[in-house]
């Protein structure tokens, strides 16, 4: 996976809105490394309105300091663990 900073370097000249293929072509024209191009090619083939949408769709790794990683690990409320959406079984309870 590549970082957001690596992808952003090659989006500066993209004229939004743009398709995935246009974004990949422009990044290649700007000299993006193969790892960045692969991340952009993995995005869904839709129109992107801005850089933020591209970054959300591209597989990017978060660059967080170790202290922030630890704080997120301790935060049980926001761990985004899916809970069952079904009703409890009638026999339980």
Please supply descriptive tags for the structure shown above.
93 residues; mainly alpha; two-stranded antiparallel ribbon; 42% helix; extended
Structure in a nutshell:
This protein is mainly alpha-helical. It contains five helices and four strands; from the N terminus they run βαβααβαβα.
Strand residue percentage: 5-15%
User: Sheet bearing the most strands, described?
Assistant: 2 strands, parallel
- How large is the count of helical segments? 5
Taking the alpha carbons of the first and last residues, their distance comes to 46 Å
Described by the principal axes of the CA atoms, the overall outline is extended
Low-pLDDT segments, ≥5 res: none
The spatial strand order of the largest sheet comes to 1-4
Supply the number of structural domains.
1
Rounded to an integer in angstroms, the radius of gyration calculated over CA atoms is: 19 Å
- Number of DSSP-assigned strands: 4
H/E series = EHEHHEHEH
Describe the structure.
This is DUF2795 domain-containing protein. InterPro entries: DUF2795. Residues 65-93 are annotated as: Disordered. The chain is mainly α and 93 residues long. It has one domain (2-74). Helices cover 42% and strands 9% of the residues. It has a two-stranded parallel sheet with strand order 1-4. It has a two-stranded antiparallel ribbon with strand order 2-3. α2 runs antiparallel to α3. The longest helix is centred in the first third of the chain and has 10 residues, at 20-29. The radius of gyration is 19 Å and the shape is extended. The mean pLDDT is 83.
């Amino acid at each position: 996976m590549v970082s957001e900073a690596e992808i952003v370097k090659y989006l500066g000249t993209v004229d939004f809105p743009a398709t995935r293929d246009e974004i990949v072509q422009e990044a290649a024209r700007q000299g993006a490394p193969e790892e960045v191009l692969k991340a952009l090619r993995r995005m869904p083939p839709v129109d992107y309105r801005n850089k933020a949408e591209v970054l959300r769709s591209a597989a990017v790794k978060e660059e967080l300091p170790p202290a922030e990683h630890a704080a997120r690990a301790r935060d049980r409320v926001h761990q985004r663990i899916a809970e069952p959406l079904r009703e409890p079984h009638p026999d339980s309870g």
